[in-house]
Amino acid sequence: MIGAEGQRTGPGTIGVVAIAGAVLVFLIAPVAIIVIVSLSGADYLSFPPPRLSLRWYARFFGIPEWRQSIMVSVQVASLTMLFATVLGLAASLALVRGRFRGKGAVYAVLLSPMIVPTIITAIGLYFFFVKLKATGSILAMAVGHTVLALPVVVIIITATLQGFDLRLELAALSLGASRLTALRRVTLPLIAPGVVSAALFAFLTSFDELLIPLFLAGVEVQTLTVRVWNSLLLEVDPTIAAVSSFLIGVSCVVLGASALLRRRTDV
Amino acid sequence: MLATLASSPGRPMKADEIAPVVAPMEAADRRETRQYLLLLLPALLALGVFFVYPLCGILLRSVYKNGYTLESYRQVARTSVYLMVIALTFRTAAVVTLIALLLGYPLGYVLATVRPRLARVLVVIVVLPFLTSIIVRTYAWMVLLGSNGVVNQYLQALGLTHQPLRLLYNQAGVVVGMTYVLLPFMVLTLASVMRGIDPALVRAAHSLGANRWQAFRRVFLPLSAPGIVGGALLVFILSLGFFITPALMGGPSDVMIAMLIEREVEFTLNWSFASALAVILLALSLVGFAAYYRLVRLERLFEGLG
How many domains are contained in chain B? Predict the structure, then answer.
């Protein structure tokens, strides 16, 4: 593989490629095995499964608590996506276009939720919402996830805006468009793929996250991840393999969609 | 951005360098600046209320318990169990970092040097687990390593062991799980630095008579140092704050700082003590990230995503 690049050949090429290959297997195998195991028709998880069936999926989608958790997760993630994308888009426009002092500091603040261990953000918000007696609400969880998703959105949209040819907007302005019209009719449609991609990652950030809902969820209102956590503390229930595969599927959809969107921008 | 990095892989980059797209225009547009600040306001306000303020709340709680006191911090320093938890957290983080570096370096190298089209395919294999929920990835390893798990089934089928090995609910399980979860951070950091290394430098070493090993050790390895230090720092710092994986894969004695914080909040209800632990963890993380940021920009991890 590396040899094909000719000049780029490094040390002990074959050995390095072999190790890298093994590490790639190490990375993908657990994810692949969970998906395969979830299709097992047996009462326990064995690999490869003795026979295939969708029984664990039937259980997952058949039990009202699990179905309810999907709804909670979708609601929290959708609100997160909305909040984080709107806030992040506005902030990114200002960061890339604006000329003001302290830009670096503002950028650092916007990225900081990525740096602070999530457990700390989670207990901070828990103390905060307990005081307001607002734990157990979808909105509280969405607010917490918005904090976590904002850096992701800002990173993706600022990168998109930097690749945007400002002359297109200037052309619109010179033809008499107002700043708002130029933004709405020229800039936003052109950066739309990046914005949609950012929104999808915001959704995923929320959908996959456990710690914020672990502290903020109520008895009635639990996200998928919280329900997985609670059942894992008790036993390794094969239904979780189906739930996990569902979550992996959502990740794949987001990854695939963002790849397609990027291809569209490249053209 | 790649080109900038290529010219100076080790140079600390500042956020101010987010390209100033607008050439200085003559019109004194102070109004425009004000408009941009207005656009920033909602995000900053949201973070102020729902992130900075709660963090300040933790800080305050850690020093306030019926009056200002450092009692909670003294309690941490005095109690050997807590000091052992902190020591174990550091040790686990160090082991995880070392293994992730050993596994991640060859893969980062391959990702950075293969043809771009192949690299894009291979990156997906790194990124897919990266984007999968941590709890799902932890569960996957519980299925693999459990006493009736896939690994034990195979070991027994191959006759390598008669009784299932205890691979889960101990320190080894925690290290495997955490390494798995954090490895993508290491690989992506290393690859992003290695992509910036000019292959002509390695070629030059060859033309001057270096063999492959010498060219690697004397030229490529030193140039990849920012990636090594950056990746190691990132993995180490993230390890310190880890909760989900050690809580599910560790045994009763494998308690890390974040788990202690959770217990104090949820069960012991000693919030000021939990806050003191959180402040200690936060301080350690911030110092580490300040160092990381000087080496690699955080957003570069996402360059394959946008």
Answer: 1
